[in-house]
TrEMBL record:
InterPro entries: YjzC. Residues 1-20, 41-64 are annotated as: Disordered. Residues 1-15 have a biased composition (Basic and acidic residues). This is YjzC family protein. It comes from Paenibacillus xylanivorans. Pfam families: YjzC. It comes from the Bacteria. Residues 53-64 have a biased composition (Basic residues).
């Protein structure tokens, strides 16, 4: 089983890095002005702009 790539608000960051908001189906939907946060390992993810969004590490959030 691999490492999780999408996180809910309140989840703990698995690694240091920059995370951005993505839609439920990130490669199908574009988000205008997504929130970005820089977290240290173990810090909790903040709330997203709406309940249908999740957090994803910036390097893995690229659109296909």
């Amino acid at each position: 089983m691999g490492e999780r790539t999408e996180f809910e608000p309140g989840d703990k960051a698995p690694n240091d890095g920059e995370y951005t908001e993505v839609g439920e189906k990130s490669f199908h939907t574009e988000i205008n002005n997504p929130k970005r946060v820089t977290l240290q390992k173990g810090e909790a993810f903040p709330e997203t702009s709406n309940q249908n969004r999740k957090w994803k590490k910036l390097t893995k959030a690229r659109v296909h």
